[in-house]
User: What shape does this take?
Amino acid sequence: MILADKIMNLRKKNGWSQEELAEKMQVSRQAVSKWEGAQTVPDLEKILTLSKLFGVTTDYLLKDEIEDEEFTDDIDRVPIKRVSLAQANEFLEWRKHAANLIAAATFLCIIAVIPLLILCAAAELPERPISEESAAIIGMVTLLVVIAPAVAAFIFCGFKNAPFEFIDKEPFETEYGVDGMVKEKEKSYRPTYVKCNIIAACLCVLSPIPVFIGSLTGKEFFAVVMLAVTLFLAGIASALFIITGVRRASMQKLLKESRYALRDQRKTHIKETVATIYWLSATAIYLGWSFLTKDWTITWAVWPVAGILFAVVMCICDLLADREK
Assistant: This one.
């Protein structure tokens, strides 16, 4: 095995992209690419640095006849897990199913508040088809009944994903044929990914329109119904983003040597956690404000403001994550 192949294999075993290895070696990504392409050979100083970085001997790096890795220390190393073609297919199929479950659960969480909104607004009508107390109780019970299966779906996905957690958290190798299979699936899925993201983005942009229409009429009940329509559209958009995003991310995780290095996985995990906390907080603020003031024609403003601020929060997460590189 030549030096170029050894550098590439060691880099992949550590879960690093070419950019990350270049950063650690204080060279350009093009230099690493040329090393792995056997276009150039690192100088002696770089060979020594590579030896220390990967924890292997210089003999292993320089002597083509040495096929097995020779480590520079006596510490027992944890063997790198290998993902077979069957495991890769199983992982992709599970993440496809999980994407639908997570999207459905997110959709339920978004629309769960709709019955409560409409019932409370109906209680404010002159003919009072329902009392405020009954509206609040029935609305809250409905909200919990809708959210319960969503929570169950999140928990179920967490347990079912346990066998594949090492793909997110540990370096791994893929066996022969896995990269080609995943790249082919990613290529065939890309048109669907692009189309669904365009539709979802358009729904996000257009979703506030019903709220604006409802506010123009001056009728409180109609305004709340239009807010419900806005939430419904936002839920559909979120579901589309999740379905396509989770499926594509699963492919990128298996193709970790290109765009989904471990650092990027950690970055995505942080953003997902922040997003969950953010929207739960926004919902709590909305419900608290609404119940305290009982002015549903004003409290709906939480959602468009939250939508705008969410984009800002995600940008801040990206900037902070990039700053830590």
Remarks:
- Confidence is low (pLDDT under 50) at residues 257-261.
- The domain at 3-62 is CATH 1.10.260.40 (434 Repressor (Amino-terminal Domain)).
- The first strand starts at residue 81 and ends at 83.
